[in-house]
Amino acid sequence: MPQCQSMQNAQLVRYEGQRLRLRRQGRRQAHAALGSLLERRDCRTFTEWNCTVKHINGRRLGAQSKCAVTWLSLIVKYGKVLLILMAVIGLAVGYGAGYYVGLSSVHQPTTLLIDSAGSLQVPFNSIVANVVRPQYPTLSYNYIFEGSHLAANEITQANKSFDVYASADYQIIPEQLMPTYASWYIVFATNSMTVMYTNHSRYASEITPANWYQVITRPGVIVGVSNKDTDPSGAQAVLMVELAGLLYYGNSSYIYDQLYVTKAANNELIVVPTETTLDPQLETGSVDYVLTYSSEAISHKFQYLSLDTKVNLSNLTLASWYSQASVTINGKLTKGTPILYDITIPSNSPDSTMGVAFIKALFSTQGQSILSGSGLQPLNPVFIYNQSAVPSDIIQAIQQSGISIEPAPQSS
User: Fold this and answer.
1) Which of the residues 4, 29, 173, 239 has the least number of beta carbons within 10 Å of its own beta carbon?
2) Residue 123 lies in a domain
3) Do 347 and 327 lie in a common domain?
4) Which structural domain, as residue segments, surrounds residue 245?
5) Is 90 inside any structural domain?
6) Which of 286, 307, 335 delimits the end of a domain?
7) What is the pLDDT of residues 155-196, one digit of tens each?
């Protein structure tokens, strides 16, 4: 037994000696490696050496120390990549913030207020949706579409403010809005009177452009018109009937009396403030025929007749012929004229910049196409009253569209 113990002790001594020699050798190798690294400035390998020395020295690294060494190694190893990634993220955040601020500054919430003839509702809404709104994504759009006289009263009597006013009778702006509420206007389109109906209208299969005045005056046929004192189309329906009497009978009262006297007495003539309110009655059959604008029929897909230009008030060269008919509007006798639409920015506009934006859109190529597609006839040239007062951006937009300008006709 003593002999075995002696042998074990000798083995332990030899083992300890070998272990000490290995540790001293490891230190020398480690320090030699460190000197070599410092000369080469190899940071990546230096980190690895640091870890190796700690293990060679017999130290057991704790979890925190291992983590620190690992993260330090990753940072040193991928430092350039991390710096580039951080720079890209910073640029992206900065650009995004700058873009948002820029977007907010360019597209501030804006409001467009339109007060207009009812027959312009379809094209004006389309121009706002397709031309104006893409330029002003935060646009708030508010409008009133009614008889042009009623629309003018919104400004002059109800004291409401709008950015745009447009009328189906070019005489309303100079007579009702100027000079207090407007200083200029642009005559920009014309229209034509028609007889509008459906397949369910009485005698729908018989009516033609040659006999319409005979069909609508038959007993039992219900005819709808708008009020001549509130809506230009109502006054223009009177002129249309008088001109038809002159053309077909040589008597302006002949058809007028059958319609506005006889049918009115028999409750076969329906009169409403604005022509657009007759559309539902025509659809349901409460009314057989409506005397209105061809644009109304085209916009709402009703059937209609293309009448003689001597009757439909669409031809500017027939102004002298049209003047043979007359109608009393709000107590004032007015001679017949071609149908002419005009537009202005009222003097009390809350935001005239939006009025300018809309009128520029109206005279753009797309805006003119929308007018045509709605059944109106854009004018070229347009007629302007007091051109020097019109915002220069509007004049430029008109000219850029290839539209010429002439002085506006004088109202009668």
Assistant:
1) 4
2) yes
3) no
4) 193-335
5) no
6) 335
7) 999 999 999 999 999 999 999 999 999 999 999 999 999 999
Task: Find out whether 212 and 223 touch, Cβ atoms under 8 Å.
Answer: no
Query: Would you tell me how many other CB atoms lie within 10 Å of the CB of residue 347?
Result: 15
Tokens of 273: 């403030």
Q: Which two tokens stand for residue 400?
A: 């850029």
How many folded domains does the chain comprise? 3
φ, ψ of residue 336 to 5 degrees: the values are: -65, 140
State the pTM of this model.
0.73
End residue of a domain, out of 62, 79, 96: 79
Q: Is residue 94 part of a domain?
A: no
pLDDT in tens, 300-331: 999 999 999 999 999 999 999 999 999 999 99
- 120 plus 217 within the same structural domain: no
Token look-up 């659809």 returns: 283
Assess contact for 297 and 191: CB atoms under 8 A. no
3 located within any domain: no
Q: Which helix (H) or strand (E) holds 304?
A: strand 303-304
- Considering the domain architecture, whether residues 111 and 20 belong to the same structural domain is answered as no
Whether a cis peptide bond, with omega within 30° of 0, leads into 381 is yes
The CATH number that applies at residue 306 is 3.40.190.10
Q: Are residues 309 and 330 in the same domain?
A: yes
Measured in degrees and rounded to the nearest 5, phi and psi for residue 376 equal -90, 160
Number of CB atoms found within 10 A of residue 131's CB: 20
Q: How many residues does the chain have?
A: 412
- 322 with 374, same domain: the answer is no
Distance CA 291, CA 299 (A): 15
Q: Using CA atoms, how far apart are residues 253 and 277, in angstroms rounded to an integer? A: 27
Three-state secondary structure of 365-411: HHHHHHHHHCCCEEEEEEEEECHHHCCHHHHHHHHHCCCCEEECCCC
> What residue type is assigned to position 380 of the chain?
N
Helical pair 79-106 and 63-77, crossing angle rounded to 10 deg: 70
Question: Which pLDDT score, from 0 to 100, does residue 274 have?
Answer: 86
- What is the Cα Rg of the chain in Å? 43
**Residue range 252-293, pLDDT digits in tens:** 999 999 999 999 999 999 999 988 889 999 999 999 999 999
Pair 191, 168: CB distance under 8 Å: yes
